[in-house]
Specification:
There is one protein chain. By secondary structure, this protein is of the alpha/beta class. The chain is about 40% helix and about 20% strand. It is built from twelve helices and twelve strands. The strands form two sheets. A six-stranded parallel sheet has the order 3-2-1-4-5-6. The protein has a six-stranded mixed sheet with strand order 7-8-9-10-12-11, sandwiched between helices. A hairpin with a 5-residue loop joins strand 7 and strand 8. Helix 5 runs antiparallel to helix 6.
Amino acid sequence: MTAGATYGQQLEAALAFMQDGDDFLVVSHVQPDGDAISSTSVIGWLLDQLGKSKTLINEGESPSRLSYLKGYDQIVNYRKDKPVQTYTHVIAVDCADFRRIGEVSALFAQDVKLLNIDHHPTNNGFGTVNVILPEAAATVEILFDLIEKSGCAIDVECATAIYTGLLTDTGGFRYSNTSPKVMDVASRMLALGAPGHKLADHLLEKMTMAKLKLLQRSLARLTFTEDQQIGWLYIAKDDMKDTGAVSDDMEGIVNYALNIDGVEVGILFKETEDGGVKASLRSAGKADVAAIAQSFGGGGHIRAAGCRMQGTLTETIEELVEAVRKALNG
C-alpha cells in the first residue's frame, strides 16, 4: 500500500484484497485476547459474505470463554494440529508486529500477500496492504468500518463479535480509549441484538476457580517501589500447573497492581517455559509503556503494552522496573 494513504483508501485497498483473492488464511496474535478472537470471527464472517473460502488458525488454543463467537470452533490450534498447507493470501488481525503472528507464519507461501489490519500504534506496516488506525479502541472497530465499506448487512452473530471486541479492549467501556465512536458502534450492535448485559457478566464479572487461585498467589507477591509509583506481581512457571490455570486466566491480573491509588505503572511478569519472562505493562497515563516495551523488543499502546525478556524473574524485574522508573522521572 502506498505510504500516506488515507484511512478510507486503506479500507478500499483491504476490500479489494479480499474481493480479488480466495482461500485465505486468517491469523491473530499469540495468546489471543477478546479483540483478537472477535476480529478473527468478524473477518471470517465477512469472507463468508463475500463468498470466499478461508482457514482460521492461531499458534495455540483460543480462550474458551469466547467459544460463543461465530467461527470459534473453526479456529485451528497450530501447535496441536500442525497443518502443512501454505497460503498465498493471508489476513492478520490485531497483530502489533509480524512476530506476534508466531509459528503460524511457517504456513505463509514464499510469494505471500498479506493484509495487515490493526490498531496498535507500534505496528510498522508489515503487510502488503495495511489498515492501521491507532485511534481505534479495538481492531473490531476498524472491521466495522470495513463492513460498512463492503455494503454487507451485519447480523446478530457479527454484531455480538464486534461488541465483544469493543467491550474487552475498553475494559467494559471504562478505559480512555472509549471514544464517542466506540459508544456509537456499541449502541448499533446492541440494536442489532448483541446481548450486552450477558456479555458483560460473562466476560468481566465471572472468573474460573483456577484464575482465583492464580490471583491469590500473585497478589501475595504484589510489590511497590519506594515512592509507590510502580507496582508489580509475578506468576512463576509452576503456578500455572499447580492451579490448573491457562493463559486466558491471566487476563486482568496486571490491573490489580495499577489500580492502587498513586500507582502510575503496573506490571505483571510471567515466567515462560523457554526460560524467559513475558511482561505486561499498564499505565495510568504518565508513562508511555508502548515506548518502554518497544525498547525491549515489544510494543502495544501508550497505556497497555507488553514485551518478552530473557533472564531470570529477578533479573527481568530489576531491569524493567528500572526502565519504568527512568521513564517516570525523565
